[in-house]
Task: structure prediction
Amino acid sequence: MSIAITTTEEKMVSHSNRAQNNLDNQVHEIIMHAMRVLLVEDDERTATFIIKGLRQAGYAVDHAPDGQEGLHLLSSESYDAAIVDIMLPKMNGLMLVEQIRQEGRTTPVIFLSAKREVDDRVKGLQSGGDDYLVKPFAFAELLARLQALIRRGTGVVEATRLVVGEVELDIVKRRVLRAGRIIELQPREFSLLEYLMRNVGCVVSKTMIMEHVWNYDFDPTTSVVDTCVCRLRAKLNEGFPLELIRTLRGVGYVLE
Result:
């Protein structure tokens, strides 16, 4: 015997679907809004490195090559985070951030600097910065710090778990499972796997891996990337018949 849905039940289902759709749209809008970042950096090599990485991670990035242009953009545009070098032409990063704070702007700011002394970091934070990262740095660390600032500033909860086939990577717990079995990884191996999982099905070159998992001052003539990939592959494949990381000679690596 078939059971018909009453008019009241239909209305309840319809209302629930509309509510879910509205929620999905709101979440989508928030996530899209939370992806706009300003980079204030005068060094072309560093700026290219950061912009490339952020765009590949899904962020919309504006770039200012000096402090005055950075101040103009932060004062006139809406950003969910800014990455600001301290040593800038026309206006240094400390003065820039002090100025926007005086204007009442609350945009989260990560300072970049080659200065690693405690006093320098304290000055950066006291001037209104929210975080301070010393050069040279691994892109993975910059991205993690940026994501943390955006989460605090917008309340948007980003995905903390990546799943590709049998492999699960928990970003918060720093844990990797394959078919429910824990895979013990070193920090660099973990970052490499995270990068491969975020680019599943795509070939990533040795240079791309160096820029994202190491840093822009990394020596491309060493074999440390190949060694790290080899270790990661061995750990992921141990006890399993199917290999996950494929090497394309002369091109790069792909997680499938």
Observations:
- The mean pLDDT is 80.
- The domain at 32-154 is CATH 3.40.50.2300 (Rossmann fold).
- DSSP finds nine helices and eleven strands in the chain.
